[in-house]
């Protein structure tokens, strides 16, 4: 896929142009392209499309367009597969496409390259090439109210800045290039008549190219415009340009660079003969082409240097003037090699005698750039500490290529020099096995595939740890790999199995090199994050762990990210590799108090989210949170849904955490999450965590809640004997402790499962008991829910008139109680009854009410359920096209949720479409 957004929005799959769709869908794609590689929050997408007054359906319209874009960009993507490019997360969407696949990305890369070349003429050529990519205003053709949004206006501003820079460099350029820039500057000056900086540069370029009279006309024109429209005189820059034109000053000439004898270096270290994997990263590196700056980052032991050297040998032939390599020792315990000392070494490698090396850093850097001017040299700067460490070592020549490796994120090199950043994750399982095969031989690895899998898993798929394990196996050829795998499992969760002969091959020592340079706040935070039970966490959760305001964590989090001691798998989510987690846990003092605070935060936040989504259906209310564990607050159901979707892995990890400080949280959090897990079809997960909750139950009420949730999960999985046993046990305990509301809820679940087995009379009896118990407990919402579920049961047995009465009663009771979710469910049931009475118009009206409420409360699963019912009604009424549209909307939602109900609906859509 390639895209153009500098002008009309266009896209191609290979040589075939695609249609980006209707205007709002085009606007979303344009916004994602402008922010390619970065998340775009949902609220910003809505702001671009509708401004300050979005409709109630805005969120659903965006989701529908996103679904259409996924099908457009990846037509062969499996229905429930993960998108390669259009990624959901952090409350919005991110388009992951290569910068070179978008004309805006190529424009930005050329502009960045022009910013650090030393030759003004070369800079002018690069900027001319960049500006040649523009075919009109960004996203031309979109409605003006959308194009005026700051997201697009800022990109138009980038073009203006590039024109100014090109105009400033044009006097030193080839006459043909200078002529092109002059024409462009004239056109741009007309569109920006009051931009003094642009007009001043245009005047100087006109004078430099022999158009002095026109330059004076430009000055007179802007002087009058400033006076008439703004009441201002020309500023200092415009006055200085006017004076230079009057004095006919020639453009300043730059001195010729210093010359020096040149020696062709060939310093690349030997490549790793057993290098394995990294095909995707190598393809990306190769795709960067020549004349670029590349950074390779990642945690300690992930194989940065091996990849850099391997790739450098692959491309060395492109650089006939040689290859330079230096280890900057950025994290060495004895201190890093300074930039000045590194330049001394590099200059000597290029033929400069030691006594001729300049004394200052700036002079050495200038001489280094001069020696490489007009040459094609590959420079590998290994193990840099940060961006400032390597900035003086960057050649200015466009024909050179620099590869920098570092444990730190070299953000400034990407931001100011246009570097292409490649961050290494641990090897894939297949690549890790390939590495073992290359080190130990195919025969030995193929004999024990299960042992290989165990070794790969325990070693964390890091090249460093895999190399250490391989070395142990190679030095003991008589050892079966299964014995080595068993030894690693004994040390699981620790680093004792990866202790090497020297600090370079000792994992704990290698991690120490990164840890010891942290500031105290960052070191404290690293130890606490290592104790977090989930795969990652939010800044809010990190602040709760640390017991400080969230704002105080920004600097420590950034420091840890730059050091690659933690990762950011999605924007605003922070985690770390298992071995780093083990390392951090080994450093930590007692963190049980911090974890207890975190678990309380998760419990109360989850309760707030679930109660907002399922008012009246949360069967347990936790006590007040401990100090410092303030829960997240939610403005609406959409926020609650998004929070649960993001935090669910951490919540589940909290439930299964083995520490004593989490004992009471296990059953409480499992009980709170039950409605959400059931609604989203995570029934296997439900069974697993409710089993944990039952073991952790601290009293009879806890035991009853866990039995009830576990029984319902077993029923969802159609394990009927187990379901009956657990639910009946729950009824017995709730009866013994005199909890009528708990009994009522359990009878409702028994009724639901009875309907699943077509035992409708049994279901009605359970609902009768539940209604009486809810009345005893004063639970009006529970009584209303029973009305609706009884109505649904009447539908199942064909008693549609009785169903209408129950559903209408449910609607009224829910409305009186202010319970929109329940009211929507009752409207859906009422529509379903009308459908079976062939009253299709009445059914459509009822389904419309249900959809409106479900969208307002952001209950996406039940939106899909009602859309499915609406499609059935349209189909029965002979409106096949409307039916297909409703079913497809429902399928998009179910696919996005990964819900098991999607499979049956997909068959229905396919059948109707064909």
Automatic annotation (TrEMBL):
Record's keyword annotation contains Transcription regulation: yes
Domain OmpR/PhoB-type: start-end pairs: 1-97
DNA-binding region extent: 1-97
A Pfam family annotated for this UniProt entry: BTAD
Keywords per UniProt: DNA-binding, Transcription, Transcription regulation
UniProt GO MF annotations: ADP binding; DNA binding
An individual GO BP term: phosphorelay signal transduction system
Alphabetical list of InterPro entries matching this protein: AfsR-DnrI-RedD_regulator, BTAD, NB-ARC, OmpR/PhoB-type_DNA-bd, P-loop_NTPase, Sig_transdc_resp-reg_C-effctor, TPR-like_helical_dom_sf, TPR_rpt
Record-stated family: Belongs to the AfsR/DnrI/RedD regulatory family.
Protein's name in the database: DNA-binding transcriptional activator of the SARP family
